[in-house]
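step 4 of 6: structure.
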Amino acid sequence: MLCATGRLLAATTLPAPPRGRGSAPRCRRRELHFPGHSEQPFCDFLAGRLTRPSVLRARRVILRRGRMPPATGGGLTGSELRARRGRCGPQTARPASRDVAAEAAAPSPKRSAVSSQRLEAAGRWALLALVTLLSFATRFHRLEEPRHICWDETHFGKMGSYYINRTFFFDVHPPLGKMLIGLAGYLSGYDGTFLFQKPGDKYEHHSYMGMRGFCAFLGSWLIPFAYLTVLDLSKSLPAALLTAALLTFDTGCLTLSQYILLDPILMFFIMAAMLSMVKYNSCADRPFSAPWWFWLTLTGISLAGALGVKFVGLFIILQVGLNTISDLWHLLGDLSLSLVTVGKHLTARILCLIVLPLALYMATFAIHFMVLNKSGPGDGFFSSAFQSRLSGNNLHNASVPEHLAYGSVITVKNFRMAIGYLHSHRHLYPEGIGARQQQVTTYLHKDYNNLWIIKKHNTNSDPLDPSFPVEFVRHGDIIRLEHKETSRNLHSHYHEAPLTRKHYQVTGYGINGTGDSNDFWRIEVVNRKFGNRIKVLRSRIRFIHLVTGCVLGSSGKVLPRWGWEQLEVTCTPYLKETLNSIWNVEDHINPKLPNISLDVLQPSFPEILLESHMVMIRGNNGLKPKDNEFTSKPWHWPINYQGLRFSGINDTDFRVYLLGNPVVWWLNLLSIALYLLSGSVLAIAMQRGAQLPAEVEGLSQVLLRGGGQVLLGWMLHYFPFFLMGRILYFHHYFPAMLFSSMLTGILWDTLLRLCAWSVASSRLARSIHVVGVLSLLLGTAYSFYLFHPLAYGMVGPLAQDPQSPMAGLRWLESWDF
Amino acid sequence: MLGFLKRPIVLTTDINVNVVVLTGVGLLSRLWRLTYPRAVVFDEVYYGQYISFYMKRVFFLDDSGPPFGHMLLALGGYLGGFDGNFVWNRIGAENALITQSRLMLLESVLIFFNLLAVLSFLKFSNCQKHSPFCLSWWFWLALTGVSCSCAVGIKYMGVFTYLLVLSVAAVHAWHLIGDRTLSNVCVFCHLLARAVALLVVPAVLYVLFFYVHLILLYRSGPHDQIMSSAFQASLEGGLSRITQGQPLEVAFGSQVTLKNVFGKPLPCWLHSHQNTYPMIYENGRGSSHQQQVTCYPFKDVNNWWIIKDPGRHQLVVSSPPRPVRHGDVVQLVHGMTTRFLNTHDVAAPLTPHSQEVSCYVDYNISMPAQNLWRLEIVNRESDTDVWKTILSEVRFVHVNTSAILKLSGAHLPDWGFRQLEVVGEKLPRGYHGSTAWNVEEHRYGQSQEQKERELELHSPTQVDFSRNLSFMARFSELQWRMLTLRSDDSEHKYSSTPLEWVTLDTNIAYWLHPRSSAQIHLLGNVVIWASGGLATAVYTLLFLWYLLRRRRQICDLPEDAWQRWVLAGAVCAGGWAVNYLPFFLMEKTLFLYHYLPALSFQILLLPVVLQHVNDHLCRSQLQRNLLSALVVAWCSSACHVSNALRPLTYGDKELSPDELKALRWKNSWDILIRKH
């Protein structure tokens, strides 16, 4: 029986040669497997024992390939499938392969074996082509509908346009995805003139199909990728087909792939990374060969792509990282490999999985900053030094006096990103909110009301009078800041601030620059000695209120309507150094001083990179959900609790609703539970050393290893969302859903095989497997037929109405279509 | 007075130290008893050093807190010591509320239970080797479960240690499953015993804590408002005084007050008053100029509404009362103004995407009344459910526009008296508490005439029968509120970040003498903190080194020494990691004392590492002697530092500004110096 398994294994896996030799040690493995060392996977156990160099190659085969399953019914089911689905013609090889492969394993393969192998390979290619074709067909069908902006297209389309127009903007995601969208638009003749103002705006004559087509193109690749990944993990065509069907017929994946969004691009890279990781794992028996390098490099490139599109790419990086660590761990434990070889392995991985992706990731940023060289809507989010790079910005090619002197007119910018400039205006704080004095806020945009004059605290004489010598402001000086437009002094006192009750209120006080001692501030440069001059842009300064000892800062909270929704400025009694209380001088006007060019201040690339990451992280953290709004929670997602409206609300609108195909999603959910159950039963059985029949053991290896990898992917792409404080949306689940569908494919195929195996009669066994897989395939296809209007769009009454295309399909009350 | 204030700080250091001696030495002595008798000398050094360290402590304590000194004298039986410690803590807790040290005390009790859990688990696994299912085996296993649940019950931080114990237990259980010398039944019994002791017992105990908590606290208090109406009604006094005896089923003609279920930013009731929306808002948008509908956070006669059947004119309850059911269409009549709750396609004042809600005033300007609302009972059991006072959460769906009555959370400006805005949500995206309302006060309306009715509204509701919430319902609600209650992330002068803890860049000033400069700070012993950090680093590096070498079949350590090394690391280094690292993900305000549980584990690691260095890394006697000398030096420097910082720990001595400045070893330490 043992050797029969070996033969079968050979039959179901692809390239033949090493397999034949592999069968002998494989039989031995079965005997060696059980005793002791339960915590060690048996491959390692084997690795620890078999050290004869002559066995090395064969053993490596076992190490990597040996996990692959047995699939008693594998070849046979293939034939059944073929019989019913006429299209898979070239598969004729499969029924024969059982005997043929056995012969192939023999020392001298016959010609028929070779030809049947060819046929089998052709059949696989044809099947792959079919899957790909179907995927492209569904994704490109009615791609041009609706002819208006849907949902987040308004953001990402707009950002694509920014690249075409080369105007600088800010987004919380890394730039690669939007850059690719911009490139696709550019190549397809879109000129960047469409405004992408709000969802529902008609595209009119603007060419948008290039961008949508690009996203759909990448989205279409998800299915072949998943198909190949599952095929490689389970070595079972039905499992791969099932996965492909689940994803092809999922309305959610379909909808998400059809619009100008980052998600198809992100998922493309995630799946590409997963596929190439699995492929390079299966190349492990011939390390440093060309395919091995190819897949390893491709993994690195895909990782860079995934991270370059969204930070969610970190999860797949984590997965590849874990896989690599366990891989290296196995290599290290393989005593037949010298430490030098292990070192080579390590270096290759560092090179391809760390250095290469990092270089590519930085390259995308370099391109991003090179392309976007014009001032645009994103300027205010960045520091003054950064802005000097952007043509059109008033800091570009500007020249200002270098050192701050009394009488200078300045703008003061908060050091924390996205807070803005110190600002005041002719409006008082309302009754009941501190003292009824002039408001002081921070404001993100450039404005005359941001200008302040820096004066000595004790004289009110005009320092710009040419008869006075220039006097520089030095670290530790006591100064007064006078608002240029209203001639009121920056002032603070023991009244609580409007929003942050523990801080003191900051106001504008006094008439024509005459106020009281509460207007005095000590100016300090962070980490400098007393007496130093203060540099424009470069010096990080703090203003310390002389009377109360508090520090001027901005809390970052938005004031109510009376404060024009600008940000609150407070004086904080907590002296702890935070970015909120650090400022720098940006504009600087002083006719008595010579100007220097700002070019010397231009930040270097690493500085820009760091700053843009800080801004992005802060932007992400700033996306907080509102209390009184319904927000999507991670636990809603796998149960398909609620979708997202992509387009249209009323019955006359063209409506598109992002919602997973409930049949697919609920099947996925069930599969995860079933997997955990069956996986733990099998794991415990093996740990207890139960004598499993060879077929069952092979199947459980597929389930535990192949399924385990995919399950890990699902967990890594799902659970971190529970820890995230930012606002979440339904579409965040889709990367996890891809993994979940792969798991479903592997699980059901394996379970059906197990079922089939437990039935004695081989005819019945075959039919159980075939009927099971077919019914799953047809079931998902039918459910897609039912739910396809969600993705392809629908007009007409809402689902409550019996006339509606979705009548009777609103299975959950929370679905609003 | 002074004495009470001192205690908290004294305690934490002491417990740490206790534990180091007791558990550390206990663990070590067990470890070495088996193989390496030669290390006795070393251990003696250790033990002696520690004892002298403690003797000093005891001495310190003697003049500050007698009970504690007595307790330490009973050092022989360490569990006894712990118990005494615990009792004493509670005494302290009761007295030291004046300072913020209550939190501190919780920390120390938490540390105690954390360590007790780990200790008893180690004891248990020790028993496992010799005689499973014996009495002490059961005792330690049960104690592990009990102390875990105590730790969790004290602070949610205890969950981390609980998870650590669970995962170590899970690994052991996995090995047990793999042990083929045991029969299936035996393995099953083992697993069952562990599941009961480590899962069921803690869960039951945890619920029990709440049970006692709720039994003890049966009166209403200052935090009532956070809880739901149903919960409040179950407390004595407060709301239940009003709601006791209300009719249960809401009928047509009922007079009700409607409370928003979500209650954020403030718990409030649906409200209306004579004033109308301003014709033009500040930003130039227009309104319907009809009567304002708001949500008002105080009890008021204007919160009363009457449920009216659209098909009939009466505002009284018929007899027998006709209950309102899920799906019924109703009108809501404002009691004091008899105007109808209405919404229409006019933008709400502060949330322009939603509809304005008003009480309809007929200005004769082709703006018809749209005052029909369909009632949806959210937590119904069947579609024919009756609307119940307090218990039912209902939504009002506008019949014409299918908008849902919702609390937007925004405060209206002065014209709306800063009450909360109520809107009609046109695009409800699923259920949210802000769209659900429940009846709080309720009576069957009797009066036909408006004047009479106003009088009736002003009179208190009549008393008929009482209603109680089941324990589980109250428990789950309380639990839910505790977990979801988000305190404002208020900044605090002594708040700090996790990174500052390791380097001890922060402190907390607990108390300053009103006149003199005597003060109490939470400040670690620099030497101990540094060596704790060092021990962790050394452990990690050594562990990785051994692990990689073992992988290449080079075993530096004998198998059982390695096993102990791993177990000690899993417990101590793991305990440090699980109690420390999660803080990086937390968004609340953090203080130095949050680090103390992690620190206590780190200190445990110190003797483990030293012992290991002595046993396995020191090749010659000379090296061993050197190490011992180093340890002595280290201990004395630790003593010296603790002595130097003593005035800040106990606050029993006035210091001159110069002395205080001298104590400010790090710039980031905030030591209070009086200006004269």
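step 5 of 6: annotate
 - Residues 29 and 43 of chain B are 8 Å apart (CA to CA).
 - The longest helix of chain B spans residues 2-35.
step 6 of 6: archive
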